[in-house]
Design a protein that fits this description.
The protein is an alpha+beta fold and 183 residues long. Among the domains are: 7-79, Roll (Ubiquitin-like (UB roll)); 112-164. It is built from three helices and seven strands; from the N terminus they run E-E-H-E-E-E-H-E-E-H. Strand 3 (49-53) and strand 4 (56-58) form a beta hairpin. The N and C termini lie far apart (131 Å). This is A20-type domain-containing protein.
Length: 183
């Protein structure tokens, strides 16, 4: 029997537990998400919730009648990724404040080609390098740093050698001999 009344009984399968809920609802999936997220059994915010029925993902603009969802149906709830646009709070249930906007921005960034030119995708957390190119870059920087330290050490030794060489002037060994200077 297709849903035509405003009272429905649905079973939700979430986190290996199934619970039943009777609710007054408009036949919109977006409204179903809002009501399910407010339930005491569900901890998924409505903006992150994905609902599946018979293996098909239900979109927010879908209606229960177009997807032929009958009363006493079981819907699968899955937590999806956080929305990329944080201004889209039309369905959002109040949540705790985010800890860092930079980590949210970097985790939601679109993949870009690797700066190293290897053909793989880069990660914003590694300055748009793939993991292999990032490792190679860090090894190259470390080698350059070690080479610069070695060069500085060799220059310091060269200066020390010059100072020692300048100290190699002849030393008067016979202290009994007096040198006279002529005016």
């Amino acid at each position: 029997m297709l849903l035509t009344s405003s009272v429905i009984n649905l079973s939700f399968d979430y986190s290996f537990t199934e619970y039943r809920e009777g609710m007054y609802i408009t036949p919109q999936i977006a409204e179903l998400k809002r009501l399910a997220s407010r339930s005491e059994h569900c901890s998924i915010p409505a903006v992150q919730m994905k609902i599946f029925y018979k293996g098909k993902h239900l979109q927010d603009e879908d209606t229960l009648s177009t997807r032929k969802i009958v009363t006493e149906s079981t819907l699968l709830l899955i937590k999806g990724p956080k929305p990329a646009n944080s201004n889209d709070v039309s369905m959002e249930v109040p949540q705790e404040a985010s800890t860092s906007s930079t980590t949210a921005a970097s985790s939601n960034a679109a993949p870009v080609p690797c700066k190293g030119g290897c053909g793989f995708f880069g990660n914003p957390g590694t300055n748009n390098y793939c993991s292999k190119c990032w490792k190679d870059l860090k090894e190259k920087e470390e080698k350059e740093k070690e080479d610069a330290e070695e060069k500085a050490r060799l220059e310091a030794e060269k200066v020390d050698d010059l100072v020692e060489a300048s100290d190699d002037r002849p030393v008067q060994s016979d202290v009994n001999r007096i040198v006279q200077f002529v005016k």
